[in-house]
Amino acid sequence: MLRDPVQEGLARGWRVIDAATLERSQTFEADVCIVGTGAGGGVTAEILTKAGFKVILVEEGPLKSSRDFRMKEADAYPQLYQESAARKTRDKAITILQGRCVGGSTTVNWTSSFRTPATTLAHWRNKQGLAEYTSDALWPWFEAMETKLSIAPWPFPPNRNNALLAMGAEKLGIPSAAVRRNVKGCSNIGYCGMGCPTNAKQSMLVTTIPAALDEGATLLVNAQAVRLVGADAAGSRGPAHLEVAPRPVSGTTGPRARHRIQAKHFVLAAGAIGSPALLLRSQAPDPHSMLGRRTFLHPTVISAALMSDPVNAHAGAPQTIYSDHFLDSVAVDGPMGFKLEAPPLHPVIFATTMSGYGEQHAALMREFNNTHVLLALLRDGFHAESQGGRVMLRDDGSPVLDYPLNDFLFDGVRRAYLAMAEMQFAAGAKHVLPIHEQAAPYTTWQQARQAITGLPLQPLSTRVVSAHVMGGCAMSNDPRNGVVNNDGRHHQWSAVSVLDGSLFPTSIGANPQLSIYAIAARLASKLALDLTGRQAPAMI
Amino acid sequence: MNRRQFLKGGLVGGAVLAAGGAWVVWRDVRDADASSPPRDRIAEILSGIAPVLLAGALPADATQRSSALASVTVGVKEVIAAFPPAVRSEVNDLFRLLDIRIARRLLTGISTTWRDADPSDVKAFLERWRWSRIALLQTGYFALHDLVLGAWYANESAWAQLGYTGPPNVE
Ligand SMILES: Cc1cc2nc3c(=O)[nH]c(=O)nc-3n(C[C@H](O)[C@H](O)[C@H](O)COP(=O)(O)OP(=O)(O)OC[C@H]3O[C@@H](n4cnc5c(N)ncnc54)[C@H](O)[C@@H]3O)c2cc1C
Ligand code: SF4
Description:
The complex is a heterodimer. Chain A is an alpha/beta fold. Chain A is 29% helix and 19% strand. In chain A, strands 1, 2, 3, 10, 11, 12, 13 and 24 form an eight-stranded mixed sheet that branches. By secondary structure, chain B is an all-alpha fold. The longest helix of chain B has 21 residues, at 62-82. Chain B starts with a helix and ends in a 9-residue tail after the last helix. The chains are: A alpha/beta, B mainly alpha. Flavin-adenine dinucleotide (FAD) binds next to helix 2, helix 4, strand 11, helix 9 and helix 15 of chain A.
């Protein structure tokens, strides 16, 4: 049997409480209450617990661990993802993948680890006034998190899906490179998106969260943070407690006991969408109407290619090769650039992504093993015409992201379809199919170029997905420009900080996890200092 | 988007409905109990729609085929049950529209029961929805696409056709 560090921790006596099993309302007290246990929440929990704070973590999803990770989509999506991996934007034109479990999206992510690009940081300094966000200032935090999470270049040959990216790029004279991954003893299986069954992935589930629980933190699971309440009339300190409800589960009825968490400080790390939504439900002051706005996605479009030999994109580590050529060859605030990566493929994701139905769809499915897929992740939020989306609340208080797709973005989509098709033909594709309702498999680059140039690009018929939700609680020392200051402190409510992906004033322009780890580590250490006057111990 | 907006979007934009009967649909849908999804009706609705979406994918043998269809229905219901309440009620609204006879006739052109529906009529309705400029109908098509195709390919019995042998053994 493989070891399961979570089960071992529970046996050691971790304080984990399932909100769904609490029959009567309870009040919990802590120094700091952290909402969300993903990239931002995990890092913050370890730092604050080690700094001596009494910490309680509130997580909407369940605590699942390697023994539950069976590598089956039918189990993984409903258990581990927001809205069963079918979360959509308001007009339903973009599918959003986000984790909803202990460890958040890090439990299900694909392990690609990039530092925040220097161009992105420069834009933040110049346009957002984030003066201290230099590569030099962040350097020690990247180093610390990379060491802690075993982030290193992937030493094994890429799987064929990724090798084809490298091959296509090389044929066209475009640079590509190896991705670094947060893994330790990875057996190169390729099921990272369903929870790593071997605990090789150094997600928050097996690193920071166990560290915090070993130090005495309390974890409340299946617990939805409903709203922050009890703000003093003057309003400057902010809320005194958090109201929590068990996550509604289908088929259960009857009153759901609500609980209360009293804390001196609240850290919101419910992810972009989750954190702004909690502030919206709490009716947090928002004098400049910034809350929930400028939410970014790296809107992602897809190109599938049929190869003559098996690709087996379901097997082997995903996303081990990338190309930034199409990010680096445009100005950051010019036409939208995009990053190229090669994802894992699994039957459900593949079937729902492929357009059409009936015979035509079945034929595409039969080519599953010979299909090579590229993704283009568009860098949103840097140009005046890329304002991203806005988090809103439904009548029942649940969040929905309104993200209109406009012509500026579609211009990037078209260039991305063209770039991917050309690269796939260069790598030997028999045909290339951009994932778009009106596209067909094209057998030559000339045919593809002509067809893609004329393809009508509209919401819904253009398949757009995202696994990178960012922004919505932008940081800026100027309250007119941000929800929180450069340290992640809420401008109007000093008892509230935001320490997750929702801090970012633009998208990152690279897979975001390492940016969140490093920035959350830096800000959580600063917060520990501010709250006590003492220095927080180093992460490692 | 709440239930009312979901329906309104379709009703306001729906020229089909302007032809008369919009109010009937509205009344019927509104009166239906939102908290009790038409669970038992989903099998009936899918018995008409799933064979068309899955043509070429389902087994040819009649017994295998009907057990495949049964597993798709179970899968779809499971997915719906796992959705958060707001999403669940939107999907239930979609199935309710497909279930109510007058709505079905107006929006899909199908006047028989789903079980008796002619596959070519089902195909025509799917194509109309797929390319519709009415958001309610177009997003309805995508919901059916993802629910049905997702439920089938989540099934181990669907994998042989893909040449996919399933996850490796890591023990
Ligand atoms: C399938 C997939 C693949 C990815 N691949 C990569 C990759 O290879 N490399 C990379 O860098 N990034 C990747 N990402 C993105 C990366 O994992 C996220 O950007 C990152 O984890 C976000 O961190 P976060 O702290 O902002 O939020 P999350 O990690 O999403 O954590 C937020 C947590 O808050 C909880 N929550 C939400 N609302 C509430 C509430 N009201 N009450 C209580 N809890 C709540 C959620 O359940 C969740 O656990 C991927 C993401 C996905 C989904
Ligand atoms: S590829 Fe490595 S990290 Fe991903 S699931 Fe497999 S063993 Fe875990």
